[in-house]
Amino acid sequence: MKLGYTIIYVADVPAALDFYSRAFGLATRFVHESETYGELATGETTLAFAAHALAELNFTGGHVAADQSAQPLGFEIAFVTADVAAAYAQALVAGASELAAPVSKPWGQTVAYVRCPFGVVVELCTPMAG
Question: Angle, nearest 10°, between helix axes 84-94 and 13-24?
Fold first, then answer.
């Protein structure tokens, strides 16, 4: 088994795709004609967005919309980059909220955190030394 998709439910799929393009330089790979589902070109594992309406169809008990939570939900997505400070600054310009400015961790990684306008926590980090 392998991880194939991370799907984030959002109020506006085209707006989410646009934000992630501007904030993190990711190209849109696919958008369904209904604009209720779209994917970014992120490598082997697909980062996708689906409309809250699709979540309501999938989960009869409803779901917690990340952008409706005052506090970040207990998960994140992470983007690896050689220049965390530049990526962090670009994300803020694109409309992300600051959670934690870039810091050097004891294990040698530089890490920063932002919250996207759709409520998701995004970690920006340098590669792990291997």
Answer: 140
Q: How many Cα neighbours within 13 Å face the side chain of 116?
A: 29
Contacts of 25 (CB under 8 A, 6+ apart): 90
- Angle of CA points 77, 38, 30, to nearest 5°: 115
Predicted confidence (pLDDT) at residue 103 exceeds the cutoff of 80: yes
Q: How far is CA 95 from the centre of its chain?
A: 13
User: What SS3 state is found at 58?
Assistant: helix
pLDDT for 130 beyond 70: no
Determine contact, residues 102/85, Cβ cutoff 8 Å: yes
Q: Contact 23/116 with Cβ under 8 angstroms?
A: yes
Phi, psi (rounded to 5 degrees) for 95? 120, 5
How many helices (H) and strands (E) the chain has is answered by 3, 8
Contact at 8 Å (CB) between 45 and 5?
yes
CB contact set of 116 (below 8 Å; sequence gap of 6+): 16, 19, 20, 23, 91, 95, 96, 122
Nearest-CA neighbor of 79 among 64, 90, 71? 90
